[in-house]
Design brief:
The protein is α+β, with helices and mostly antiparallel strands. It has twelve helices and 25 strands. The two termini are about 45 Å apart.
């Protein structure tokens, strides 16, 4: 039974965001993001109760960014007028300003009342920086003839503010919330707006940006993403000593995969002895990277003196905030420290399930050094330009396995979902269709290096031909579509 005030996540969104229930009408639950500026609604069956929330979500530290080169004269940071559509978030933002010694005036109104109050407050306080924020949401299907919940209210307030002060230098406007229409806010007169690509923003993000601007010289560029990630970053590296009490990002709340989850932990313990690294954000989130010496890698590649990146994920509200770059940089730093020739990873030439984002990695300086007809690519980022290119092992190049009848699947405990879905879901799916099923579990380095697929987490073959890396194809409802796709 859920009550107003409970903290919940949504199953249909992989439990990526923690919400607070703010109202209940029949079976419709109205939600407000706990640490992100987002409204949502849900039915009861899609909700999962969250026992505890991380109170440290509201405690970033930007002290290292306050020092400016002002030795020759006295300098006062900019004054902030902060208008917020959420009283709780306003209080947190005001605490943040106070902590960082920013003179700020804060006011709470419903978003629809912003435009009628903003001019009066501007006249009274004459700020250097105006923050207009609260909650928003993007509707895939229009509601009340609106595509966005509150973007139009933010736009109206920005336009009112620009009537008061037309100069973008004399009055800096920061506007928007989660999923707001960024383009409309910029066109209305904002200097900074959220959110490009409709990403979610943290409750403190508007205050963080305002503080960055308040402490910056107007003639200098501000790398907001780099600074914000540096402020909030708190990575944990798992070891044999702490892995029992720490989660491993995937499947930690999936009860049916509990055995598979524990098997992944046992696999990690063994790999730690070979220099393997599992590093994640210190949150209840899927933000992590795994890598280790390629000589001990669980992928059929030859890449001597490289670090091999395996799973690398940033999901949900953490996308677009620089965490992926920060995680990748830790791997690059380790490679440099260890004298490695570079980093290597296996991806889909086009996006494959349970593999890293190919296009993103190419933008980070990786290049394809080998591609297979089955759709796999081997990407490399060299730190030593004279080093030889990594290559796929011969066993993985044909896209075929020895067993030509029915279904053949290769999997390992590299993923906490694999064991359950292969040994349970796929067995049921094959039996229902009277199809022969051959299961090959990769348990040793020798087996992995001789595998007929680069995807050693999970690869499904049908009649000897490679089909997919998607573990969900094990399920009865997904199997036929996966086979038909080939």
């Amino acid at each position: 039974m859920f009550r107003v005030g409970d903290y919940v996540t949504r199953k249909s969104y992989n439990n990526d965001i923690v919400f607070k229930i703010i109202a209940i009408e029949d079976d419709n639950y109205f939600l407000k993001g706990y640490s992100v500026r987002l409204y949502a609604d849900s039915v009861k069956d899609d909700l999962v109760l969250v026992d505890t929330v991380n109170k440290n979500d509201f405690d970033p530290d930007i002290l290292e960014y306050r020092s400016l080169d002002r030795n020759e004269y006295f300098y006062l940071p900019g004054v902030v007028l902060h208008i917020d559509g959420d009283k709780d978030y306003l209080d947190k933002c005001m605490e943040f300003y106070k902590k960082n010694k920013i003179k700020a005036y804060g006011f709470y109104f419903d978003e629809e009342d912003f435009s009628t109050n903003v001019k009066e407050l501007l006249n009274k306080y004459n700020p250097d920086i105006l923050v207009l924020t609260g909650h928003d949401a993007y509707y895939r299907k229009k509601r009340n003839n609106k595509q966005y919940k509150n973007t139009s209210n933010f736009v109206s307030a920005v336009k009112e503010a620009r009537e008061y002060e037309k100069s973008h230098e004399k009055l800096i406007i920061i506007s928007g919330a989660c999923q707001s229409n960024y383009e409309e806010l910029i066109m209305a007169g904002s200097n900074f707006a959220s959110s490009p690509k409709k990403v979610n923003i943290h409750a403190l993000d508007p205050a963080i940006v305002a503080t960055m601007v308040a402490f910056s010289d107007k003639n200098n560029n501000i790398d907001l993403i780099k600074k914000q990630v540096t402020m909030n970053i708190d990575f944990i590296t798992l070891t044999k000593d702490n892995i029992e009490k720490e989660h491993i990002c995937c499947a930690f709340s999936d009860k049916k995969c509990q055995e598979s989850y524990n098997l992944k932990k046992e696999w990690l313990k063994r790999q730690f002895e070979n220099g393997y690294v599992f590093r994640r954000l210190n949150e209840r989130a899927k933000v992590f990277i795994e890598y280790g010496p390629a000589e001990n890698g669980w992928v059929p590649v030859k890449a001597d003196n490289y670090l091999l990146i395996n799973c690398f994920w940033v999901a949900g509200q953490y996308k677009g905030k620089g965490y992926a770059k920060a995680l990748l940089q830790t791997a690059i730093d380790d490679a440099l420290q260890q004298g490695k020739d570079g980093l290597v990873t296996v991806v889909g030439t086009k996006k494959f399930h349970f593999m890293s984002d190919t296009k993103w990695l190419l933008r980070q300086g990786f290049v394809a050094c080998e591609q297979l007809p089955t759709g796999f690519s081997l990407l490399v980022k060299k730190l030593n330009v004279d080093a030889p290119n990594p290559t796929f092992n011969e066993s993985a190049r044909t896209g075929e396995c020895p067993d030509k009848k029915g279904i053949t699947v290769y999997f390992s405990n590299r993923c906490p979902f694999a064991e359950f879905h292969v040994m349970s879901s796929l067995k049921e799916t094959a039996a229902k269709r009277n199809l022969p099923l051959t299961i090959i579990k990769l348990e040793t380095m020798e087996q992995v290096q001789a595998a007929p697929t680069p995807a050693t987490i999970f690869s499904l073959f049908y009649e000897g031909k490679f089909v997919t890396t998607d573990i969900s194809a094990c399920m009865d409802s997904r199997f036929d579509k996966a086979i038909a796709g080939k």
